[in-house]
Amino acid sequence: MEAYNDFLKYLKTEKRVSVHTLTAYQHDLEEAFAFFLNEFEITHSHELRSSMVRSWVMSLSDSGKEPKTIHRKVSTLRSFYRYQIRAEIVKTNPVAEITLPKLRKKLPQFVEEDKMELLLDKIPFGDDFIGVRNKTIIELFYGTGMRLSELTGMNREDVDKSRKTVKVLGKRNKERIIPVPQETWEILMNYCALREETQFPDRALFITEKGKRVYAKLVYLVVKAYLSSVTTADKKSPHVLRHTYATHLLNKGADINAIKELLGHANLAATQVYTHNTPEKLKKIHAKTHPRG
After folding, report:
1. Which of 115, 156, 171, 284 is catalytic?
2. In-domain check, residue 105
């Protein structure tokens, strides 16, 4: 449909969303309008009605889609129609008043401090280039809270040796400078020295054995493999290390506004998900404050 091709172009050029986000939007829109075409013979966006959208939402629920997934798909369609209204293609938004299934609030999964210490101080990574690279990747995720896409996109010049910081390119191409903890910095410097010795000309900071920039799947598998050695949690991903970074900072008393800046969140609401209290923290609070603690 020409209308949502223009919308996708707008997201790419003006909103500057990531490739991953753009692909998700495209998939959601194609899936939605395939349903509307099949069920209601809708071929143009101005023909859609709220009742049809409700039928689509019910079909998603009946097919077993999680509430979170349904919310995302409806949000995509709602954004598309907002764009259509601004472009004066349609006059009303048929998605505006749609009631959605309640979301189950899930606390972000993270790795306990003692398990992270075990992973980083006791688990062998190896002294060869790949071993040092993998250790540095884990350390940077935990030491900076950066996203997977931010790590894979890092270049050698993004490491500021005078300030002991790294520069990453976040969502919507927003640059962020992140301080690196001393222990993590020493490991990063060791890797950087080995990286120079490889003499591969690519700008990429993290590379494969063949000198190419590491890709998301490779990094994900590296993180999953090493986290599996210390935790049985369902999720073992770079994002879990991001959650771990934020949770541990909060547990140590870091200001939530500072954590917001470090994580690169656009608003405080995204950071407040980390304000949960862990069982370990609750025990410490109880021991310190209760008369019989």
Report:
1. 171
2. no
- Whether residues 75 and 215 fall in one domain: no
Structure tokens at 145: 């809270």
Q: How many CB atoms lie within 10 A of CB 5?
A: 11
* Strand residues in the chain grouped as ranges (E): 159-160, 165-169, 175-179
pTM of the model: 0.67
274: annotated active-site residue: yes
Q: Which of 73, 176, 242, 248 is catalytic?
A: 242
Backbone CA torsion sign across 102, 103, 104, 105: negative
213 in catalytic set: no
Give the model's confidence band at 79: pLDDT under 50 very low, under 70 low, under 90 confident, else very high.
Answer: very high
**Which residues form the domain of 27?**
2-86
248-293 tens-digit pLDDT: 998 888 888 999 999 998 888 788 877 765 556 656 655 666 666 5
Please indicate whether residue 242 is annotated as part of the active site: yes
Q: How many distinct structural domains can be found in the chain?
A: 2
Do 67 and 131 lie in one domain? The reply is no
Per-residue pLDDT tens over the stretch 181-223: 999 999 999 999 999 999 898 899 999 999 999 999 999 999 9
Q: Percent of the chain beyond pLDDT 90?
A: 64
Which of 53, 29, 24 has the alpha carbon at shortest distance from 39?
Answer: 53
The 8-class DSSP code of residue 174 comes to -
> 131 and 179, same structural domain?
yes
Active site residue 147: yes
Examine the residue annotation and report whether 135 is marked as an active-site residue of this protein. Answer: no
Tell me, yes or no, whether 58 and 132 share the same domain.
no
292 domain-assigned: no
* Least-confidence region, from 137-141, 233-237, 287-291: 287-291
Choosing from 73, 147, 176, 243, which is the catalytic residue?
147
Catalytic residue of the set 12, 265, 281, 284: 265
CATH number, position 184: 1.10.443.10
| DSSP secondary structure code for residue 141 in this structure | H
